[in-house]
Amino acid sequence: MQNMEALPYFPGCTLKQRAAGLDRSARDVFSALGSPLAELPGWNCCGATFPLTVENLLDLTGPARILASARAEGTRLAVACAACYNVLRRTNHLLRTDADKREKVCLFIESEYDGDLEVVHLLELLHREIGYGHVRQALRRPLEGLRVAAYYGCLLLRPAVEVGFDDPEDPVLLDQLLAAAGAAPVSYPHRGECCGGYLAVRSEEAALEASKRVLTAVSAAGADVVVTSCPLCQYNLDRRQGIIARQEAGFRPVPVLYFTQLLGLALGADGEGYRLDEHYVDPRPLLRERGLADV
Amino acid sequence: MQMMRPGQTRALIIGAGIAGIQAALDIANSGYEAVLVDRLPSVGGHMAQLSETFPTLDCSQCILTPRTVEVGHHPHIRLYTYSELTGLQGQAGGYTATIRRRAAYVRWDLCTGCGLCQSRCPARVPAEFEGLLGERRAIYTLSPQAVPNKPVIDREHCRYFSTGRCRVCERLCPVGAIDYEQQDEVFEEPVGAVIVATGYQLLPLAALPEYGGGNVPDVIDGLQFERLLSASGPTAGVVRRPSDGRVPGRVVFIQCAGSRDPERGRPYCSKFCCMYTAKHALLYRHRVHDGQAIVFYIDIRAAGKGYEEFVQRAMDEERVLYLRGKVSKVFRQGDQVMVWGTDTLSGRNVEIAADLVVLAPAAVPDPSQAELARILGLTIGEDGFVEVRDAQLAPVDTLRPGVFVAGAAAGPKDIPETVAQASAAAARILSLFSRWERAAQVQVQADGGS
Amino acid sequence: MKVALLPEGLRSRLQQRVEEASGQNVLACYQCGKCSAGCPVAGVMDLLPNQVIRLVQLGLVEEALTSQTIWYCAACLTCAARCPKGVDLPRVMEALRELAMERSGDHLPPDRLPAEALAEWPQQAVIGGFRKYTW
Ligand SMILES: Cc1cc2nc3c(=O)[nH]c(=O)nc-3n(C[C@H](O)[C@H](O)[C@H](O)COP(=O)(O)OP(=O)(O)OC[C@H]3O[C@@H](n4cnc5c(N)ncnc54)[C@H](O)[C@@H]3O)c2cc1C
Ligand code: SF4
Ligand code: SF4
Question: Which subunits sit against C, judged by 3+ Cβ pairs under 8 A?
Fold first, then answer.
């Protein structure tokens, strides 16, 4: 579908700072495809994690506020960050299905909201509305022959009933998108296993334990690049490769990119603002070699 | 010339538990005669003692009674209760069974089953049917639903027999059925085939000294607990512990007490304990809402239809705590029973102060089985149960032609499996009967035509 | 002989609190261990996830509170997604974390986080860490 009106879009804190490259590339992709993203005015932090105890309503107020103000802008809210997506989508589900909690939370945030906003991830939009066929037609620099490892992580997949738009044990939508963009997705077993998430804050060792499992599988599958939609996954998978390379003789570092970065370049963006120089495993040699960027 | 021998198409069934009952009804309803023998004064076996049955929680008496009543009235069933087989001569198609009926000291032909005799009997005796947790009189029936509903006098405890004075029951009986002079009677029955359906017994607690050896009043076995759960039981269905009649607030159930213990108990799995223990824990929680039920198990075998779901229901809905491990020791401390166990899953040893401990002792063959096997010329397996001809392909055939086995007599099994085996054994016999009849008909035709 | 006493009563007070806070029936868990088998951080945990829930089942909540495992849990929901009994173990972990911090305060006070790391970590990690490790 072309020339849609601008989509209300929630970037979130990380995309304004460490993951600015995700924000910028996401905007590029959607502009190139004719549906520019329109940042939600006056947004606040979603809280980064969904509260797991049943009476913790306080931590729902942040995301609830976002939902309520987005509803004033339209019926849908597009999200790029997997974590924000997870939190917003779960909160929305809860407010939709639990009238009692909805009432209390609305009282806290002093807004009316009845859960009728639709929270959608960019990947879901590309698949369902823009269509992979349209992506293929818009390609300027197809990712011909690029061996990509699509990494979904936890937050797009679980809990499936609340957030899932793909098969939680065998997700395919990112693979299919990359294939539509000309790449050759590699098959590896840990596409939805956890990277270690926020554990980095407390224990490098624990985060390493988790990300190593994913990365050794990626490396063994012969991928040229890992692709994700989550800033924390990007960080964990990218940051730890140096350590793993020191520990494991046969380990071959693989750059980790946001799917929008790769897609943006394929759609002809120049990579301006993608902050590729901030990645730990430098993706630029690969991108230059494949004629995807001159950065 | 081939002719039908007398009694050739009659079946002898030893044991009138649910196995014997089912087989007798199948045979009798096919138009053949069944001779049903049980040692006890009435039929039903262990099923008559059960409260509710897993996994449907049907009232056991309610689903059993229509069948016992049918057995009691069936024109093709000759019932010998309070009786035992003392001899079997001949061969398949031509056996003569010798049955000895013990003196009941009551003329059952006169008795109307009114029960007046029992009401005033001065001798009170712990009732075997109630697992010794209730009382009966010296003149008694097993239960109010007994079939036949005719009493017997237990000579050992009867006042008159021991002191020469009393005869209260005689005075009360409105039809003059009491007969202190009655003697054992011996009957001979010609039969063509036999089913052994003598069931099981529970390993006596004395064989489990580490669990109190039967000397701790608040350590009981599963059948005793069934009676505590039964509305018709000694506590009218209120769970009260034997020592002081208190309703126990914490009950520990111990599975595999003597089962799967090649060293000191029985090597085999008793098969129905996992399920009845889950049932016990669940029913206890139904009766005592704030009670705590803890089960020790080494693994849970719940392979029947709806069984696993039933066990999970006990855990999920009734909050029964399952601890994985065998209990080492059970002993009395004050008015509680201490249980020393372990939970191998957490690696914790646990000590539990319980109000009541319910054991699931190994199911063992009826003690009479060895003698019965001698009489019948059967082989007994290493486990003590009747050996079958081929465990895979002839599971209800014994090594002796014309003699079959069904139910727990061949090894522990639950009611559905027992009933299936009983029908299988009946079918094996019915096929013999019809083969014999056909052969005789062919012979008659051949003779007639010559 | 090391003997752990089961607490008095049907449910210990703490067990009840964990169940209420997490919204989970811990006795539904039949200890199959599937949660532990798939946990991405099991290798560095002192107790496996199924052992944590076991302690709660046994009423030994105090012990669960001293375990490092509750802090290692990444709330990745892998275990919950695959649990055959529908036990949402990450919710139990969160309830335990909250209970532990209610007693002993922040697990990881924000001022103990190194400045250079704060600059390096994605904001999402820092905020997530605050949510999980501070009270
Ligand atoms: C505590 C407990 C609870 C149970 N709960 C359930 C349940 O909920 N559901 C379920 O499916 N199963 C249950 N069972 C199993 C059930 O009891 C058996 O499956 C069933 O009783 C087997 O029937 P049977 O006829 O083979 O043997 P029995 O019931 O043992 O009957 C054998 C009969 O043979 C008679 N007999 C024995 N020897 C002789 C002899 N030499 N001469 C004459 N007569 C003799 C006995 O007097 C008895 O009447 C439970 C078992 C126990 C111990
Ligand atoms: S996977 Fe579920 S049932 Fe199995 S041990 Fe873990 S919590 Fe218990
Ligand atoms: S949610 Fe926690 S316990 Fe469960 S798999 Fe993830 S890290 Fe392990």
Answer: A, B
Per-chain mean pLDDT for chain A: 96
Print the domain residue range for C116: 107-135
User: What would the mean pLDDT of B78-104 be, rounded to a whole number?
Assistant: 98
Do B238 and B355 lie in one domain? The reply is yes
- Report the CATH number at residue B244: 3.50.50.60
Which domain range does residue B152 map to?
116-172
The pair of three-digit structure tokens given for residue B289, joined into one six-digit string: 């809402």
Please indicate, yes or no, if residue B384 is contained in any of the structural domains: yes
* pTM listed for this prediction: 0.90
**B59 domain residue, yes or no:** yes
Has residue C1 been placed in a domain? Answer: no
Q: Which fold has domain A7-122?
A: Glutathione S-transferase Yfyf (Class Pi); Chain A, domain 2 (1.20.1050)
Give the minimum alpha-carbon distance from C56 to chain B in angstroms, rounded to a whole number.
11
B/e letters for C28-63, b = 16+ CB within 10 Å, e = fewer, are bbbbeebbbebbbbbebbebbbbbbbbbbbbbbbeb
Do C50 and C81 lie in one domain? The reply is: yes
Beta carbons within 10 angstroms of residue A221's beta carbon: 16
Give residue C1's pLDDT. Answer: 43
Considering the domain architecture, whether residues C59 and C119 belong to the same structural domain is answered as: no
Chain C residue whose CA is closest to A16: C123
ipTM rounded to 2 decimals: 0.94
Are C14 and C39 part of one and the same domain?
yes
The Cα C97–Cα C129 span in angstroms is 12
Q: What is the mean pLDDT of residues C110-117?
A: 90
CA separation for the pair C108, C8 (Å, rounded): 33
* C-beta C49 within 6 A of ligand 3: yes
Q: Topology of domain A141-289, per CATH?
A: Rossmann fold (3.40.50)
- Summarised one tens digit per residue, pLDDT across range A262-289 is 999 999 999 999 999 999 999 999 999 9
List chain A residues with pLDDT less than 50. Answer: 1-3
Q: What average pLDDT does this structure show over C60-88?
A: 96
Separation of alpha carbons B152 and B107, rounded Å: 9
B88 and B130 in one domain? no
Is A55's Cβ below 8 Å from some Cβ in C? yes
> Which of B367, B358, B285, B350 is CA-nearest to residue B318?
B285
DSSP 8-state secondary structure symbol assigned to residue B106: B
- Taking only the tens place, the pLDDT of each residue in B215-260 is 999 999 999 999 999 999 999 999 999 999 999 999 999 999 999 9
Q: How far is the CA of B144 from the centre of ligand 1 (A)?
A: 19
Q: Cβ C6–B294 below 8 Å, yes or no?
A: yes
Q: Whose CA is nearest to atom 5 of ligand 1?
A: B276
Q: Reduce the secondary structure of C9-22 to three states and give it as a string.
A: CCCCHHHHHHHHHH
Same domain, C12 and C71: yes
Question: pLDDT of B176-218, one tens digit each?
Answer: 999 999 999 999 999 999 999 999 999 999 999 999 999 999 9
Calculate how far, in angstroms, residue B44's C-alpha sits from the geometric centre of ligand 3. Answer: 53
